[in-house]
Amino acid sequence: MFRNRKEAGQLLAGRLSSEGFVQPVVLARSASAVPVAFEVALALDAPLDLMFGEHAELAGRSVIVVEDVLSRGGSLPAALSELRCKAPRRIVVAVPVAEPEAIRELETAADRVVALLRPNRLRDAGMYYADFGAPSDEDVCALLARRR
Fold this sequence. Notes:
Shape: globular
Structural class: alpha/beta
Distance between the termini: 30 Å
Low-confidence stretches: none
CATH class: Alpha Beta
Strand content: 15-25%
């Protein structure tokens, strides 16, 4: 269990720090994933943005897409296919908690999926975080502003 999204992001960043990314860009899949993604961007000295927003040029860069929880049947594979059209060098999905089936769904859309915990069935995402309260809009904006 993670204390909060910040701790989950720090642990995820530790796992990713040896990957050798080329000009990394970190994209948070959702506003709730921004605290996780911020820690990854900080550790990789990378810019941070929202995946669904307008972001920097991605051609030739390593793109790390971060979510706080990943369950099967989501829209992320389609979003990654769209992202692939921007010609990134590599797409990595990084998440603290992901169902194995969700990871399998991403195997063709992403170059790599990194998940710290892989429960067979994800019932309640909050059970993996002691504090799973959603970040405020102000907190999200402040974290994004610090890594842009």
